[in-house]
Amino acid sequence: MIAAEQVTFARGHRPILADVSLSFHPGELSVLVGPNGAGKSTLLRLLAGLLPPDRGTVLLEGEPLDRLARRDRARRIGWLAQGAQAAWGMTVREIVALGRLPHGDGSAAAIDRALGRLGLASLAGRRIDRLSGGEAKRAMIARVLAGEPRVLLLDEPTANLDPAAAFAVMRLLREVAAEGRAVVVVLHDLALAARFADRIVLLSEGRLVADGAATSVLCDSTAGRVFGVRFGAGHAVLPA
Amino acid sequence: MWSSFSALLVLLLAGVGAEAKPSRVVSLNLCADQFVLALADRDRIAALSPLAADPALSAAAERAHGLARVRPVLEEVLPLRPDLAIAGAWGGARVAAVLEARGVRVLRLGLANDFPDIVAQTRAVAEALGEAARGEAVVQAMASRLEAAPRPARSTRVLVWEARGFTAGAGTLADAVLRAAGLANAAPFAGYGTVPLERLVAAPPDLLVTLSASAFPSLSEALLDHPALAPLPRLSLPAAWLACGGPDTVRAVRALTDRR
Amino acid sequence: MTRALGLAAAVLALLSLATGAAGFGLLDPVVLWEVRAPRTALAVLVGSGLAVSGAVLQGLLRNRLADPGLLGVTGGASLGAVLAYYWGLSAALPIALPAGGLAGALAAAASVLAVAARAGTGSALILAGIGVAAIASSLVAMALSLAPSPFALAEITIWLLGSLEDRSWRDVWLATPAVAAGLALLLPLGERLDALALGEETAASLGVSLGATVARAAFGTALAVGGGAAVAGGVGFVGLIVPNLLRAAIGERPGRLLVPCAFGGAALLLAADLAVRLAPLRQELRLGVLTALIGAPVLLVVALREARAA
Fold first, then answer.
1. Chain C partners within 8 Å of A94 (Cβ)
2. Taking 70 as the threshold, does the pLDDT of residue B3 lie above it?
3. How far is CA C108 from CA C26, C49, C104, C217, in A?
4. Hey, which of A178, B160, C69, C152 would disulfide with C74, CB 3.0 to 4.6 Å?
5. What is the reported pTM?
6. E strands of chain C, at which residues?
7. What is the CB neighbour count within 10 angstroms for residue A52?
8. C74 exposed, middle or buried (CB, 10 Å; 0-12, 13-18, 19+)?
9. Cβ C22–B199 below 8 Å, yes or no?
């Protein structure tokens, strides 16, 4: 339901994405993987409408993104920045409530739901700058959920999370996708990707290299070549 | 040839013996300007003080046009080779000292706070200029103008107010002017001080005299136009008339009495 | 909290009406109406304008030290007002005075925002602001030295530190439209500032237009600060003190601070103006001296805390 069609993007003279076409559908948890500088975060930004592509278009449910009103886009797409941080010591509830901004309502129900799903109910009144890195990250994710968008674009939501918390978040994102939303996540942890993704998209140097199930993408000839690693049993990542 | 030479010698000796009127007079001070302009021949005036032609501060501004002005600094005064310098009590002290060391007569005028002071200073300047007769004439003119001024029937309380609420109390020149005009000074102190706006409004005088020193806007003088003062009877005078005690001070007295 | 601040402001306003050179108490009606009431009204107006501007700038730039004075906006406003006043422009056309303040404030705000766009919103921004403020205050000094009136230069402390002495209703009418318009632009920015707390891109993803927000913040600040400085001179530190103090009591969500800051700023300036009238000195202290006495320590504490947290 959200698709990039032949998008190309360059920053100054540096090309970042070249002729990438992808579409993501509701019910699907897709994971973007690739080495540093592959263009994963940039692709996410293009999908979110934060950057305009130099060439090509981004379509949201069939309509070009740049033709939609700002608020409309914000209601339907939720975006989590990499390393998201709050500039002020706002409470967890206040941060999560920001997710309701595009809807113009401070729907306590939606906020409470989001807090509950991320296990933050008891921390709702605490200042975010007094929480651990993992707890703060979960608050940021809850903020995206609170907006109940149809498309979720999350850039490294499991960074700073311990393995148990990372699993919990990925499990939650699978549930969210199953509710009929399109969820696209950038991950560096290939094992996590293999375990939870319905579909893995491999990018390298701005180009689409592979797109499919974990078994087809996370093999020596494809992802192995791009990352310079080998894959062992159960998608275990081994040095080349 | 011997006879022309001796004739020349006689003339020179005669010149040295006689009382020569100073012919290059320099005024180093705003207050001295007034006296010099009233008493000296224009072609004997070498230069006046820098503010002489400023109508805001100099009562003799119109008469000062066309005459040179110098700042009271050595580099500007010495080239004029003055033979008489008139200075205030403290300004231009270094210049005065150097001139005296070179044999130039320097007349120092103090602050004239009342009409007797003004008269005394007029005579002193006239004597230094060698214009004693003219001096007496000026003194007489002042006296007759003061006499002729009509006196008010009953005593009116007047406050003189300048920029920033600056007020002249008892013993000042402005006070002498008020008394000469038959008015009472409403300022509650001696010497110079400030009356804040609120006190002025709470205990208003019968007449507010405001002195304006500049035609240009300033916050200090904008105070004089504060709306709270609108209902007060007032008279606006140029600050120049009360800046210095001199022959022109009488104009302030006449302005006050003519108002009745 | 807002109610408490409002009450404090009301009490201080009453005290302000009762205090002055003519004696304590609500005595002479002329003194009350023509001298003390305008002064009180201006303290409320200028104080709230400065405090709300500070809160908005801090939210926009995500920097606790952002303040219209520190960023040179107040200095620019004073410069614009001085140029309009001493050369007779405002004597001919009264609106030229707040217009001058607005123009000067806008110029300074534009310079500072240009730096922010290039160098980010951290300490480089504050340093640039200090630079703009220094340029503005030296230009004010030069303008006053060159002004036609002999009294101009002596009035420099009013323009650089601020004063409400002897202000009249005329000054209130000049300042009110600008400050009111500024507040009208600034107060509704709360939601956007909240979103900006998560960063500019996240705010954009939430539907907040950064360009529109910056424009409104810049214009609103220029109006509120420019209008105030035109009649009261450059009072500093209010925009720094009030939001930082209230944050400790109300919480750090930027949007929640705005209205309380309006009341807090009014209260602060009323208190400062009372103090300058009560101090037994020959000449009334400038307002900026008092606000600096409170503001400079606040600045140090906030700056040190920031450094420690970094």
1. 194, 251, 253
2. no
3. 41, 17, 6, 13
4. C69
5. 0.89
6. none
7. 12
8. buried
9. yes
